[in-house]
Amino acid sequence: MTAHAGSLTKTAPAAEARTAARRSLGSRIAGAVSSGVLRVFLLLVGLFWLVPTLGLLLSSLRKPEDMSASGWWKVFSEPSQLTVDSYQKLLENSDITNSLLNTVLITVPATLLVVVIGSLAGYAFAWMEFPGRDWWFLGVVGLLVVPVQVALLPIAELFGKIGIFGSIIGVVLFHVGYGLPFAVFLLRNFFAEIPRELLEAARLDGAGELRLFTRVVMPLGGPAIASLGIFQFLWVWNDMLVALVFSDSGSQPITVALQTQVRQFGNNIDVLAPGAFISMVIPLAVFFAFQRQFVSGVMAGAVK
């Protein structure tokens, strides 16, 4: 017994030393991450990634002849090159303006429908009992691995038979169908982390499933729902493949309209540059507007 106690006494300082070493390493890493030098480096990296955006903005504010003669950085030595004539021409181009409107008409419904239906389905899979619930959820998870290219032609044929191929409704329905599996998977896992005691207390107070969902689950799931909305908005707004297949000249979004302008008029950079910048800055504005909710949703999913 005495020998065993002595071995424990000798082992304890060694374990404490190893723990102190690990803590000191972690402290050094944390100190390095929070150091001013690293912050300056990360700031420089962020500014470097913004260079193409700045270049596109300055290009959209220059005349075509100036863009042909020199690069966009020339404006720093000749600020007189900056003008808004390109944006005036953009507003006079009906193809671009109509495509911007079509993009909004496609993106907003596709985002709202995915968020609403995904939230309801996620709550049902997390907290409601019904036959085959787990098997249905496994089927939803299995749909995540289906490539979008596999369904393009079969769904295009189906939409053609029911008369919605080439319309905004067809593009919206395709985005909703392919956005729902991820939405249900994400929100179900988030809703399942809500304490059961909280839901049971609400049920004891007489709350039904709908009231429980709207008054308890939705407020608690706000960060995850906001994150899903941002992801879906960015995916749909920047999509080109689905729009190329399912839209026509009257329903094409801005991505297809810009590609068409390049193919038909290769030298109309005075329209393409401002159109490309507008199509890029709108999703950036949406992301920064909901940045706080997005970060909260990511942290809530990562930290238990």
Low-confidence stretches: 1-12
Strand composition percent: under 5%
Q: Main β-sheet: number of strands, strand sense, barrel status?
A: none
Number of strands: 0
User: What Rg, in angstroms, do the CA atoms define?
Assistant: 27 Å
Total number of helical segments?
Answer: 16
Structural shape: globular
The percent of residues in helical segments reads over 70%
Q: What structural class is derived from the secondary structure elements?
A: mainly alpha
How is this fold's topology laid out?
Elements: H1 2-33, H2 36-49, H3 51-60, H4 64-69, H5 85-92, H6 94-127, H7 133-143, H8 148-162, H9 168-191, H10 196-204, H11 209-220, H12 222-237, H13 241-246, H14 254-264, H15 269-289, H16 291-302
Protein architecture, described:
The protein has 304 residues and is mostly helical. It has helices at 2-33, 36-49, 51-60, 64-69, 85-92, 94-127, 133-143, 148-162, 168-191, 196-204, 209-220, 222-237, 241-246, 254-264, 269-289, 291-302. Helix 9 runs antiparallel to helix 12, helix 12 (222-237) packs antiparallel against helix 15 and helix 14 packs antiparallel against helix 15 (269-289). The chain is globular and about 70 Å long. It starts with a helix and ends with a helix.
Can you give me a brief rundown of this structure?
With 304 residues, the protein is mainly alpha-helical. It is built from 16 helices and no strands. The chain is globular.
